[in-house]
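Box 3.1 A note on notation
Throughout this textbook, protein chains are presented in two layers. The first layer is the amino acid sequence; the second is a token string describing backbone geometry. Keep the layers aligned when reading.
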Amino acid sequence: MTQRIALIGNPNTGKTSLFNRLTGSFAHVGNWAGVTIEQKIGELHGNIGQLIDLPGVYDLDPLSADEAIVSRFLLQEPFDGMINIIDASQFERNLQLTLQLLEMGRPLQIGLNMVDVAKGRGIHINLERLKERLDADVFPITARTGAGCEVLLSSLRTTPREPFVLDYGEETEQAIQQILEATGLSERDRWIAIQYLAGNRVISEQLESSTPTVNEIRKALEVKLGRFAHAHITERRRDWTKDVRHHVVDQQGAQQATVTDRIDAVVTHPIWGLPIFFTVLYALFHITFNWIGAPLSDLLDGFLSGPVTSGTSSLLQMLGTSSFIQALLIDGVIAGVGGVLVFVPQIFVLFFFISFLEDSGYMARIAIVMDRFMQLVGLNGKSFIPMIIGFGCNVPGIMAARTVEEERERLVTIFISPFMSCSARLPIYAVFAASFFASNQALVVLSLYMLGIVLALIAAKIFTSVLAAEDRNSLFIVEQPPYRVPQGLTLWRSTWQKAKGFVRKAGTFIFGGSVFIWLLAYSGPAGMDVPMNESFLAMVGGVVATLLVPLGFGTWQAGASLITGFLAKEVVVSTMAIIYAVSESDLSASLLPVFTPLSAYSFMAFVLLYVPCLATVAVIRREVGSAKLTWVASLYGLGVAYVVSLMIYQIGRLFGLS
């Protein structure tokens, strides 16, 4: 039978990097907490078993949805052993989780990661003493480079070990034995009794439902202790970790300010932090739209609209295909799919620099910068992390809301995440910004991102005021990793992981959508090959065109593009390319008689805010577990989009803008 090894550790300790090293996988790695929000499974090198990468946790007591995955896995899933990865530079804090894993008595290997970072801070760990204190195998590794990983892999074992026993004091030890007797658990299950007394929610639900008397045992213990049992357990664990640190860690010299500390003093500054963040975004968009991305997109567009289109046309004519097939492939598939593919270079450039910011450690600081603003609307900085992830795609951003502990705050985070401008909207911005704001493309796109953030905060304030608050407030605890120079291979993998979804969608979903949209444009009540204005697509767009007049873009072409954009935001560009039967470069010229700079900006704002795409709606339904809440989360943005675009266009007209 295939052995299954669980990979467990604190957030941002290098678990996913180690997972990739041991399995040859390419799971997304980020130099910030919250990258892993659900378990990943990979085959270990040599086909010796499976490795399960679990979300990072500080404790086996789950506070959030992603942390509950770990507790439920350890209780309910079959596995043969564990690898606990420890950040050597944060040694004492990481030991809290290590102790709880040792108490389980399951086969355990410990990977001591970031030893190089620890040495740079003057922290030296005596491995032999550590092995002796933990009675476990400890391997120094550097997951980023792979140093020591093969030794760890070759030393994996699944032989049961004796549970580590920490003396919690006479009264607590008696309570542990009473719980074991009441539940019929064996001495090897001592860890379950300890977790119950420590307040583990998953274990408490199971034990109290099957053996109600355990609650009386805990209450009796708390009377003897004169305090909550979980507070006593936590104190004993803290004393133990301090003792271990004292015996195995040699801290040379006084703690001095590191490079990370000095950079943080600037980029997380209460005053300068936010302007720095927006300056970084501006530079990112300037590189994407002006310096590198746009010229590459123009080259690809010239290739698709030139040799590919003419070559395909000549081939089809040579084969004697019908005019219907020729029109379908040239005006439907190549125009529709090609209209999106031309933006692949810009998408890659954008994701490359986003990955650079992530792996350097800067992205993790944005949550700190935004925390005080999030506090004003009833959330905290942790809710901004899913919003940042949403810049790439709203789907993983919404899933990342699992890291938010309080249910109310998690729901609000999900509700506002679609306002984050994802990469699927980028082709729309690129077309309109190049057409109407050629000299200020980066600034215009930055303003849309800022508009999404501001409206998300306003919406959060409204939702947190309406939804009932929980009994306890959430705490904002986020891992601040050290700054580091990203590795080239890691950057490439991260960029590809983000961008391949865009390419895959163009080859599948947008391909099918383009064919369907072209058929709607090709046919009408009068039959096939009808004038565009008499097509079914024109009829569909005309249904909403009147409502869009006050927003500045009341044409059936705009209406049809917005309706099909529900499938995927990239389809907005595909639809326009099919309607106007032009390439991406010629699309700009086709839009100039239809839009003005003011109505173009109003249109982009509407695209930013209106209903999420189909995939986002599906993940919202899965995460909130309610059809009613899904409708609310999906449709309220439509009202916001209409009001905001109306204000932009009408106020702009009052000031004489065009």
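Strands lie at 3-9, 40-43, 49-53, 81-87, 108-113, 123-125, 137-140, 249-251, 523-524, 527-528. Residues 627-654 form the longest helix (28 residues).
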